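--- STAGE predict ---
source: upstream dedup step, 1 unique chain passed
mode: sequence only
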Amino acid sequence: MKILVPIKRVPDPATTIKVSPDGQGIATDNVKWVVNPFCEIAIEEALRIKEKHQGEVILVSVGQSTWQEQLRTGLAMGADRAILVKTDAALDQFTIAGLLAKIASDEKPDLVILGKQAIDDDSNMVGQLLAEFLGWPQATFASKIEIGDKVTVVREVDGGLETIAFKLPAVITTDLRLNEPRYASLPGIMKSRKKELKEIAADSLGVALAPKVKIKTLAAPPKRQAGRKVASVEELINLLHTEAKVI
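--- STAGE serialize ---
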């Protein structure tokens, strides 16, 4: 089975994020970059499927040359090879999905697995757009995947779980409870240096790179006011009624 895993480079969740002076993005000075946690789950699931059914796991990312670091992390986990669609332009989710669809059309995988969303923008759009562009069935928010004659996916929905089944090829996006990603071992890190990492210029794929969505401005949220102690339940109720106006 051939599995394509798109991944994204995001700031470490432990990093303190600041808005850039021009309000067009975040300040990148002294920011540690990591593989998006939901993408790590997607890599892990692809590796487990490979271990059970044999095949190949291919990573793909869309970004600058520095994104090679996160692709190497995925290769160290056990992926077979990687593709970097190289661009310095700021792309929206629609364009990224179009570029991934072109890579999928060229690679012809049986399955595309990716994180349900990135923790930096939380858009939750690329997986759905990719499935639409490819014309493939999709299952989002997967918490369990079983592959037989058909693919059966248990997905998390409002109020419970939904089980769906479909034939390959397909697109699946991973949720938090699907698995626990493995750590890259020292032998895996050493082997990753020799694995193929191919660069492709984004503007060579025939996809319009002009974004359909543009960020007009970003601003940090207002600072929360400090709390205060009250002497009694009666005072608390009175403040909730007169000041907070929640009761």
